[in-house]
């Protein structure tokens, strides 16, 4: 990445000393190729207000906006530094004075992996008093989850409990985070700039991207031609996982293995027709959207989210005929159509449209190495189909890709960088990868990348799925890599080839001695796939492996795992 030009122009309101420091900051920020952060230790000139922006992030969103926040803060005269919670020493908090926390929530209301240690340190109450610290929290989350923004809410409460003063109220951001994040940052920088130092009082915290960042992005997705599509399961499988290849030619988009691709879906035409009918419309009615006026059918296809209804739509349509879900059962209302069909009266079109949320992109772990497939990006996507309340349901994006992307010809995409999921920079180090089901995606990319770069380190893959005959995703590629010796070990777990379930974690425990020997020789361990069950069980198996083969107590094993995380040798891309 090249530094933005000019960095700090001579016309900017800084002394030469401040300008030199700021230019150094930006040079540091841009000299790191894989999203590294400027060194926290860099001394700021005394006149600038210090600001430490600490991010907790699983898949890179908080990290990216923490960097944007730093740029905006620097423009307003702060000596801002960005710190990864995973490596931030809680003992340094009291000296930080002005702190912004930006964190997502993961799992079932849990902290992202890199935030767990700081969260635990603050919860333990063993950090020194934060009486001199002023702070504000930006929580990222998703209202589709029960524990919306729980981790950010907890950091907010913990910092206050440890004696810090809240400079401005926390903001809880849904997936459409840009506007609330910008308003929060503006307010937080305004409040913190009044505390000390020479931070300027420029009213708006611009988070506009520099010219280097502009081009295709989440806000401006690249219409990527779909080059190829093929099913990865064999006929007779209960699963449907598809391989997609998109062209990035002419987009100027670049990615690293470990990154995800954001894909903008289009709603299913049948679902759109059902919604149009339920509204008593014909689909040709003009509707005002943020992208201009569109016919209703088009707006419902490309612009609006027809999934889980907003609270505004629930309020508009009143008590629902279908009633609340019975305890332990799936909710009766899963999507906008459920609500419309259950409503006693039809809403006016304008009132209905005003309650809709914008359709959100879905993320997919990239399954190609850019070195192996220049100008292309590949995905491995499991088709989501299920039935609820007597109606067949289709996952919006996975089914758009499976059923219509080839015919439409293009999909709006952007790169979602994830510096928390990276191969070791030293290619001689061994890697162990665990990716059952679609979790194989980034490991196909890792293996391709290590082959393309001639990395000499050994590669060990744990893969599993339901049946060996129908669900061995990328079978030929993986077996070829094994025959060539590139894949040093391939351990497979077929859950339904026999009466009792066999999962990847059982294979890990069977191979505990060798697994531990690889860890001891410097291996990194990567996990990708299902977050709710698999990743938790694999984590427990990792502890077990260390206890059994490393002869450690459970507490010592937990310390060993924490040390792996701190060294970025245990990374997870789970969803
Ligand atoms: C960082 C990251 C990387 C990812 N990588 C991949 C990847 O490589 N491959 C991949 O396939 N996916 C991946 N995903 C998941 C992907 O982003 C989508 O969530 C997935 O494709 C489903 O999206 P959809 O639009 O098809 O489904 P949606 O329309 O969003 O519907 C999904 C929802 O449907 C409901 N649902 C699903 N199944 C059932 C069921 N059986 N019964 C009742 N309700 C159900 C659940 O509420 C679920 O949340 C990744 C996610 C993240 C965050
Ligand atoms: N959060 C989201 O947005 C989102 C969206 C889509 C999918 N997902 C998750 O992603 C997963 C990916 O689906 P997929 O089809 O690729 O793979 P999967 O459902 O995870 O199945 C892959 C293999 O893992 C096995 N498995 C089941 N439970 C396990 C456990 N506790 N530990 C280890 N292995 C286990 C499965 O066995 P059996 O099937 O025989 O039990 C199967 O053999 C889905 O299960 C879903 O939970 C999340
Ligand atoms: C597996 C998974 C679990 C999640 N759990 C929650 C949750 O419990 N509460 C919430 O508010 N958001 C949850 N989210 C949404 C994320 O917090 C949100 O997508 C956020 O923008 C991710 O930021 P990050 O990339 O910095 O981690 C979850 C997302 C995923 C993929």
Structure, described:
The chain is of the alpha/beta class and 575 residues long. It folds into 4 domains: 16-193, Flavodoxin domain (Rossmann fold), CATH 3.40.50; 217-263 and 360-418, Elongation Factor Tu (Ef-tu), domain 3 (Beta Barrel), CATH 2.40.30.10; 267-358, NADPH-cytochrome p450 Reductase, Chain A, domain 3; 431-574, Nucleotide-binding domain of ferredoxin-NADP reductase (FNR) module (Rossmann fold). It contains 19 helices and 21 strands. It has helices at residues 16-31, 61-75, 93-96, 116-124, 150-161, 178-193, 269-278, 296-303, 311-317, 336-342, 349-354, 396-403, 405-408, 441-452, 475-483, 504-510, 512-520, 534-549, 554-566, and strands at residues 49-56, 78-84, 98-103, 134-140, 165-166, 171-173, 222-231, 241-247, 260-264, 286-289, 292-295, 362-365, 376-382, 385-388, 391-394, 410-416, 431-434, 459-465, 489-494, 524-529, 570-574. The strands form 5 sheets. Strands 1, 2, 3, 4, 5 and 6 form a 6-stranded parallel sheet that branches. A 6-stranded antiparallel sheet has the order 12-9-16-7-8-13. Strand 4 (134-140), helix 5 (150-161) and strand 5 (165-166) form a beta-alpha-beta unit. The chain binds flavin-adenine dinucleotide, NADP nicotinamide-adenine-dinucleotide phosphate (NAP) and flavin mononucleotide. Flavin mononucleotide (FMN) is lined by residues 57-62, 104-109, 112, 140-142, 145, 147-150, 531, 575.
């Amino acid at each position: 990445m090249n530094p933005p030009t000019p960095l700090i122009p001579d016309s900017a309101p800084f002394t030469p000393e401040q300008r030199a420091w700021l230019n150094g900051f930006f040079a540091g920020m841009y000299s790191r190729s894989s999203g590294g952060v400027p060194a926290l230790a860099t001394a700021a000139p005394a006149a600038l207000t210090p600001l430490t922006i600490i991010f907790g992030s699983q898949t890179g969103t908080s990290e990216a906006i923490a960097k944007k926040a730093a740029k905006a803060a620097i423009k307003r005269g702060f000596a801002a530094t960005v710190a990864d919670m995973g490596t931030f020493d809680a003992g340094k908090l009291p000296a930080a004075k002005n702190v912004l926390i930006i964190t997502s929530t993961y799992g079932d209301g849990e902290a992202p992996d890199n935030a767990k240690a700081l969260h635990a340190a603050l919860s333990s109450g063993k950090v020194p008093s934060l009486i001199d610290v002023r702070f504000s929290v930006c929580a990222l989350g998703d209202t589709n989850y029960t524990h919306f923004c729980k981790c950010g809410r907890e950091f907010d409460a913990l910092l206050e409990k440890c004696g810090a003063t809240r400079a401005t109220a926390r903001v809880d951001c849904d997936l459409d985070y840009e506007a609330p994040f910008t308003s929060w940052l503006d307010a937080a920088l305004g409040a913190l700039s009044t505390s000390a130092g020479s931070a300027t009082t420029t009213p708006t915290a611009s988070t506009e991207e520099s010219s280097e960042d502009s081009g295709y992005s989440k806000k401006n997705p690249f219409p990527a031609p779909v080059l190829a599509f093929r099913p990865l399961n064999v006929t007779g499988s209960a699963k449907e996982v598809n391989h997609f290849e998109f062209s990035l030619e002419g987009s100027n988009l670049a990615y690293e293995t470990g990154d995800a691709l954001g894909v903008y879906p289009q709603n299913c035409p049948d679902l759109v027709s059902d919604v149009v009918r339920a509204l008593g419309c014909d689909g040709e009615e003009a509707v005002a959207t943020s992208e201009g006026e569109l016919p209703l059918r088009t707006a419902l296809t490309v612009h609006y989210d027809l999934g889980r209804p907003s609270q505004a739509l629930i309020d508009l349509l009143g008590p629902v005929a279908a009633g609340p879900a019975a305890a332990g059962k799936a909710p009766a209302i899963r999507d906008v159509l459920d609500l419309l069909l259950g409503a006693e009266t039809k809403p006016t079109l304008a009132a209905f449209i005003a309650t809709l949320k914008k359709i959100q992109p879905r993320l997919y772990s990239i399954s190609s190495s850019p070195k192996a497939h220049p100008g292309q990006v590949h995905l491995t996507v499991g088709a989501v189909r299920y039935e609820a309340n007597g109606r067949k349901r289709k996952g919006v994006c996975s089914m758009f890709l499976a059923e219509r992307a080839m015919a439409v010809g293009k999909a709006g995409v952007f790169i979602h960088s994830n510096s928390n999921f990276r191969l070791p920079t030293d290619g001689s180090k061994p890697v162990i990868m665990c990716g059952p089901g679609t979790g194989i995606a980034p490991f196909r990319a890792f293996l391709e990348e290590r082959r393309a770069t001639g990395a000499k380190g050994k590669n060990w893959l744990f893969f599993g799925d339901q049946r060996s005959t129908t669900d061995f995703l990328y079978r030929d590629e993986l077996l070829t890599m094994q025959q060539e010796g590139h894949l040093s070990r391939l351990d497979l777990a077929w859950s339904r080839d026999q009466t009792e379930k066999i999962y990847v974690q059982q294979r890990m425990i069977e191979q505990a001695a060798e697994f531990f020997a690889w860890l001891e020789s410097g291996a990194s361990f990567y996990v990708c796939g299902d977050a709710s069950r698999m990743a938790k069980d694999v984590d427990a198996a990792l502890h077990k492996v260390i206890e059994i083969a490393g002869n450690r107590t459970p507490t010592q094993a937990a310390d060993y795992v924490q040390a792996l995380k701190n060294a970025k040798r245990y990374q997870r891309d789970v969803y």
